[in-house]
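User: Design a sequence. Structure:
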């Protein structure tokens, strides 16, 4: 699964001469369609685009000069969006007003101002912008990740944080994690001495953990479900032309993307229905709980205690968040961590030494013991600093007029925090671009949302609720990969030549999958 799962504005590079080098892309949109569509847009631009974007009386932040129709999209050409925006911020300041297609957005690129978004104005900026995809796929945006702020959203966020993904609940899934990590280790063992690409197996492992935690050990339709979620991910990455040009709704229709999404939605919906029906019968018959996430949600739904009653469709939307949000983020963190370890042999040696000394002579590593792996945790933090899976987090939308750094942020304005720029800001980090896990040994900087120079999981009300779920799988897999195996690069590659390029798109996945050769290390 190599595509963007968190939607972010994306455009196909080849399809659009004037934004031909845009890196915010991955979709397979038909070239003819885009040419025709944009000729139409150009023709009707002056007729259709009469609306003023912002009142003259507002004191908006400065920003780069804009072109008609595309606004500032061309200035993001030739670089990943997080890099392009960081470079623009160096010139125009840590708070910029930009026009991304028809969408007016504020870009925040410094930890000082990120604090104004996440703390001072967290409530005013707690909503998400409308997204056609979330509307179609997530049952009218009735999910947690893309749902607009309000009573319903607050209720659902509380459920997902307290009942579904709390540290205590995540611990109850340790059996599933152990099984799946064991399978991964078995696979690696079977490939010893041969170069192997780990990405697909690691993604499958995370997928299976998510699936089993959600629907129990024997989710019959697991493979189809995962295939559809993957397909959804591929489409998500291409859907956002429609969100960049929301006034031209016909784009999503004539591109065929809307109908593809609706097809996947229908199939996913049917699979969820089948799983739900089977579970309802089981619950009626046995009356006993499986303890998985579906059972938790059914129990809450049936308890009648909710202020705003929920439907099966609302539950499906939450599961889509868990599947889509919980898979690629963790899988790519494992791949980046291994890549950095291969690129920095001293760090690999130190991390392996820690794991091997901590578990000396043990045949099995239990999750509880992972707490002792202090250096490995620093390695993971440093990986998330340099390779945050969502470098621009998820966009927020202003719901109450507020100010940042003296500038007006009007209602409906999209606000994007460049978490990557904050994480490599030289004012906050020494030797900011280098991979040095040791920096976390001496400091108490954490990713729990209070250190605004390090927010790979976001911060404030919209912060990721899946930190525990994600990190436990990442730590468990990495610890065992380092414990049981020594790793080599293919003979023609030296560490400093490893390709560190990221793929285009809103998610920072490695462009070329890491290839490594495992050799069995006997800890006994
Ligand atoms: C390495 C692993 C992960 C990373 C780096 C990550 C990162 C993020 C980020 C950056 C956001 C947006 C925060 C913001 O807008 O301020 C987010 C939101 C979210 N994540 Fe994660 N995530 C990870 C794992 C997970 C897992 C395992 C799950 C579920 C099982 C999950 C579920 C969600 C949900 C539901 C939201 C929406 C929260 C909201 O809008 O209130 N994530 N995540």
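Assistant: Done.
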């Amino acid at each position: 699964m190599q595509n963007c799962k968190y939607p972010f504005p994306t455009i196909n590079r080849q399809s659009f001469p004037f934004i031909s080098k845009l890196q915010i892309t991955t979709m397979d949109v038909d070239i003819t369609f885009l040419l025709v569509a944009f000729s139409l847009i150009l023709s009707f631009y002056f007729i259709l685009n009469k609306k003023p974007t912002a009142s003259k009386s507002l004191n908006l932040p400065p920003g780069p000069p804009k072109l008609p129709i595309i606004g500032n999209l061309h200035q993001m050409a030739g670089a990943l969006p997080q890099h392009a925006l960081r470079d623009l911020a160096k010139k125009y300041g840590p708070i910029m007003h930009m026009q991304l297609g028809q969408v007016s957005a504020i870009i925040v690129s410094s930890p000082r101002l990120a604090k104004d978004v996440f703390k001072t104005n967290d409530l005013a900026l707690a909503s998400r912008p409308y997204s056609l995809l979330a509307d179609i796929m997530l049952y009218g945006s009735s999910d947690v990740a893309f749902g607009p702020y309000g009573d319903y959203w607050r209720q659902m966020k509380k459920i997902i944080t307290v009942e579904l993904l709390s540290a205590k609940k995540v611990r109850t899934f340790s059996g599933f994690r152990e099984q799946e990590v064991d399978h991964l280790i078995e696979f690696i063992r079977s490939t010893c001495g041969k170069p192997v690409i780990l990405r697909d197996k690691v993604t499958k492992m995370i997928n299976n953990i998510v699936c089993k935690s959600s629907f129990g050990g024997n989710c019959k339709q697991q493979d189809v479900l995962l295939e559809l979620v993957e397909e959804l991910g591929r489409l998500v990455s291409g859907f956002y032309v429609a969100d960049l040009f929301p006034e031209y709704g016909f784009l999503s229709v004539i591109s065929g993307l809307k109908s593809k999404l609706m097809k996947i939605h229908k199939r996913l919906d049917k699979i969820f229905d089948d799983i739900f029906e089977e579970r309802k019968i089981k619950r009626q018959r046995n009356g006993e709980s499986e303890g998985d996430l579906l059972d938790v949600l059914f129990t809450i739904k049936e308890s009648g205690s909710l202020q705003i009653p929920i439907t099966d469709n609302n539950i499906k939307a939450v599961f889509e968040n868990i599947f889509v949000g919980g898979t690629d983020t963790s899988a790519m963190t494992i791949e980046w961590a291994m890549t950095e370890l291969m690129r920095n042999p001293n760090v690999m040696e130190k991390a392996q030494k820690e794991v091997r000394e901590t578990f000396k002579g043990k045949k099995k590593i239990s999750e509880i013991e992972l707490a002792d792996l202090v250096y490995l945790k620093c390695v993971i933090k440093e990986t998330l600093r340099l390779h945050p899976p969502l470098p621009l987090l998820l966009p927020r939308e202003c719901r109450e007029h507020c100010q940042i750094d003296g500038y007006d942020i009007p209602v409906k304005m999209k606000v994007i925090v460049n978490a990557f720029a904050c994480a490599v800001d030289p004012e906050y980090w020494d030797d900011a671009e280098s991979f040095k896990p040791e920096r976390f040994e001496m400091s108490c900087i954490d990713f729990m949302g209070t250190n605004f120079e390090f927010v790979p999981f976001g911060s404030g009300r919209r912060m990721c609720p899946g930190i525990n779920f994600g990190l436990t799988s990442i730590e468990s897999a990495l610890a065992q990969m380092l414990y049981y195996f020594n790793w080599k690069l293919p003979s023609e590659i030296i560490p400093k030549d490893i390709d560190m390029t990221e793929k285009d798109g809103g998610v920072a996945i490695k462009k070329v999958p890491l290839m490594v050769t495992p050799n069995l290390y006997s800890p006994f």
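The first strand starts at residue 95 and ends at 100. The pocket of protoporphyrin IX containing FE is lined by residues 144-145, 157, 160, 165, 321-322, 325-326, 329-330, 333, 389-390, 393-394, 456-459, 462-466, 469-470 (CB under 6 Å).
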